[in-house]
């Protein structure tokens, strides 16, 4: 069988190679390949013990590195690309994400073969707009077209938050979604019974997609509000449940600003944490006066359900 793997290439400034590599490893923990020509002459002398360097190598871009990762045939390339773009941008890393399998213009249709109705937890069914729920479905249906925004529910980080939401959303719950992506968490919170949801994201395209997905499920302002902006500057008030399905660095940076937004006794759900970064996140949560109540783990990914200290 001649199955097609997908090659994804990420171009980032050389100074950001290590951080970008950590994010790439979140998508494919079995290995990546890095091209970095910033120290070509020194490396040739000290490692290969040669002075004559091929002209093609000398023409390589010295200011950027290329990170290559390879997806198995049954992996969803669109979800991985959206994840990479949003996580790199959230960390302030300039990036260009390219694929050798399908031109970006073809993503709108080519990737849909990977996204089928997906049951989550005990109550939700995530269903793409081009599919029909199974005829015997008794779950709450969340209709979604993620486009190029991260969040179909298929990634472990999103799945764990959705499962946790089932346990903490109640009638009259107010919900804040930090880094909303496709809007899937905010919409799920409303379908599970929340009174209102606010999603915020720095990515204009993500906010546009989230608004459209909200409308697909019958939600609009003031019940569902999606806003492009910065958490510290553009969000006020307090919320019963705050979710941040982002990356470890962003959780560490944003948690002090999140603390006053969580009601006493409320919930702060953080996900997108690879297990090797968990200790750093735990330290940051403690410094921000959050206490961990429940820990979820799936394939080396960690999700933490926290409450303000003194309320666990």
What this model shows, in words?
With 312 residues, this protein is α/β, with parallel strands linked by helices. The protein folds into two domains: 6-110, Ribosomal protein S10 (Alpha-Beta Plaits, 2-Layer Sandwich), CATH 3.30.70.600; 115-308, Vaccinia Virus protein VP39 (Rossmann fold), CATH 3.40.50.150. Helices cover 32% and strands 29% of the residues. The chain is built from eleven helices and 14 strands. The protein has helices spanning 17-27, 40-46, 55-58, 77-90, 107-110, 156-168, 184-191, 204-216, 231-234, 248-258, 278-287; strands at 6-13, 33-35, 64-71, 96-99, 118-120, 124-128, 140-144, 174-178, 196-201, 224-228, 239-245, 262-274, 290-298, 301-308. The strands form three sheets. The chain has a seven-stranded mixed sheet with strand order 10-9-8-11-12-14-13, sandwiched between helices. The chain has a four-stranded antiparallel sheet with strand order 2-3-1-4, covered by helices on one side. A hairpin with a 2-residue loop joins strand 13 and strand 14 (301-308). It is globular, with a radius of gyration of 21 Å. The termini are far apart. Mean pLDDT is 82; it is low at 40-59 and 102-108.
What is the gist of this entry?
The protein is α/β, with parallel strands linked by helices and 312 residues long. It has 11 helices and 14 strands. The longest helix is centred in the N-terminal third of the chain and has 14 residues.
């Amino acid at each position: 069988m001649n199955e097609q793997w997908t090659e994804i290439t990420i171009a980032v400034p050389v100074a950001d190679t290590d951080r970008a590599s950590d994010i790439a490893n979140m998508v494919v923990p079995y290995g990546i390949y890095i091209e970095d020509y910033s120290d070509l002459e020194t490396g040739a002398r000290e490692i290969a013990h040669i002075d004559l360097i091929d002209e093609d190598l000398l023409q390589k871009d010295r200011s950027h590195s290329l990170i290559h990762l390879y997806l198995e045939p049954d992996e969803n390339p669109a979800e991985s690309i959206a994840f990479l773009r949003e996580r790199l941008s959230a960390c302030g890393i300039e990036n260009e994400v390219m694929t050798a399998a399908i031109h970006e213009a073809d993503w709108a249709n080519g990737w849909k073969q990977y996204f089928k109705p997906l049951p989550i937890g005990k109550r939700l069914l995530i269903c793409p707009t081009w599919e029909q729920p199974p005829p015997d479905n008794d779950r709450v249906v969340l209709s979604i077209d993620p486009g190029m925004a991260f969040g179909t529910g298929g990634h472990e980080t999103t799945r764990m938050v959705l499962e946790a939401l089932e346990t903490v959303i109640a009638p009259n719950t107010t919900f804040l979604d930090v880094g909303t992506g496709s809007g899937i968490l905010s919409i799920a919170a409303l379908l599970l019974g929340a009174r209102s949801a606010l999603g915020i994201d720095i990515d204009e395209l993500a906010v546009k997609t989230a608004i459209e997905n909200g409308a697909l499920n019958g939600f609009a302002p003031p019940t569902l509000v999606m806003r492009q902006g910065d958490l510290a500057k553009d969000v006020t008030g307090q919320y019963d449940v705050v979710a941040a399905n982002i990356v470890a660095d962003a959780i560490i940076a944003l948690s002090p600003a999140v603390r006053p937004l969580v009601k006493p006794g409320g919930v702060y759900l953080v996900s997108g944490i690879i297990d090797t970064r968990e200790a750093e996140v735990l330290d940051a949560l403690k410094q921000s006066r959050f206490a961990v109540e429940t820990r979820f783990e799936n394939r080396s990914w960690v999700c933490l359900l926290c409450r303000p200290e003194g309320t666990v």
